[in-house]
Amino acid sequence: MSRITSRVSLAAIAAAALALSACGGSSSTDSTTAPESSAGGTVRLTVGASPVPHAEILNFVKDQGLAEAAGIDLKVVEYTDYVQPNVALSEGDLDANYFQHLPYLKAEIADKGYEFEHFEGVHIEPYGIYSQKIKNISELAEGAKVGISNDPSNQARALSLLVKEGVLKDLGKEDASIVDYDGNAEANPKKLQFVETEAPALPRVLPDVDIAIINGNFALEGGLKPAEDAIVLESVEGNPYANLVAYAKNTEKLDALKKLDEILHGQEVADFIKKTWPNGEVISSKN
Fold first, then answer.
1. Strand bridging mode 145-149 / 96-101
2. What is the CATH architecture assignment of 128-233?
3. Least packed by Cβ within 10 Å: which of 9, 39, 93, 124?
4. Low-confidence residues of the chain, pLDDT below 50?
């Protein structure tokens, strides 16, 4: 009789333990949907960025303790293209990204329907025209091949630079593309041949074209020094292409993101940018 009682008691205890375990599992699952925070009440922010200069700037903020002092546990995820950082942000894998300028962000939102917000620009990377075949833009021959980005906003930016140099005629369009210039003898008097390429690959195609118009960060990643190697460098005066921090609408981490953006616009980051890129390859919007 005592053995039976003992077995029943053990079974009851086991059932109770399973019930408690199930309750505990449910609580743990629910907690994963809440905003992530680190010990001490700090907020964990995962930010996607291009390796140069964006990730370098964010890592400075992290390594110097600026993020920690603001209650932010900062994780930097690097991307080498212009597509995945916005995809990752839209899918919730990132809390923010820092790699793009406003015209590109607006084009992405219009094209893909992203529900993003953004802060003001942090820095500018002047666009440059590079060549291994000529030393001056005036040497550009008729029928020359021009390497150019295949994304609409940066393509318009590149064409605008050629317009300012007198190589192409101004069509009065903010969203001009190579389609507007191909076969247009009046607007493209040199009959330039445009070679569309993914922006990160432009430094690699430089030997195969007469000139290439390259984003500042990809020029740096490709071993180019914009201030020294570019035969034409974009002006920063009135430049609308400052790179900014974008984030998803209705984020629960907005307060922490505001603190991060305030740090990025601070004097310490401005001084770091000036010291790291003293020849104007990257220019803080604070300067």
1. unpaired
2. 3-Layer(aba) Sandwich (3.40)
3. 39
4. 1-35
Give domain limits for the chain.
39-125+240-284, 128-233
End-to-end CA distance of the chain: 88
CB 90 within 8 Å of CB 248: yes
Q: Find all residues with CB under 8 Å of 3, minimum gap 6, and list them.
A: none
Q: Which residues are CB-neighbours of 61 under 8 A, at least 6 positions away? A: 67, 74, 260, 263, 264, 269
What stretches of the chain adopt beta strand conformation (E)?
A: 43-49, 72-78, 96-101, 116-118, 123-124, 128-130, 145-149, 193-197, 211-214, 232-233, 243-248, 283-284
> What's the pLDDT tens digit per position in 217-264?
899 999 999 989 999 999 888 889 999 999 999 999 999 999 999 999
Do domains 39-125+240-284 and 128-233 share one topology? The answer is yes
| CATH entry, 39-125+240-284, from 3.40.190.10, 1.10.230.10, 1.10.10.10, 3.20.20.60 | 3.40.190.10
Rounded to an integer, what is the distance from CA 52 to the centroid of its chain? 10
d(CA 128, CA 216): 7
Q: What is the pTM of this model?
A: 0.78
What lies within 8 Å, CB to CB, of 234 at 6+ separation is 126, 127, 128, 161
Res 39: pLDDT: 52
> Which regions of 222-282 does DSSP assign to beta strands (E)?
232-233, 243-248
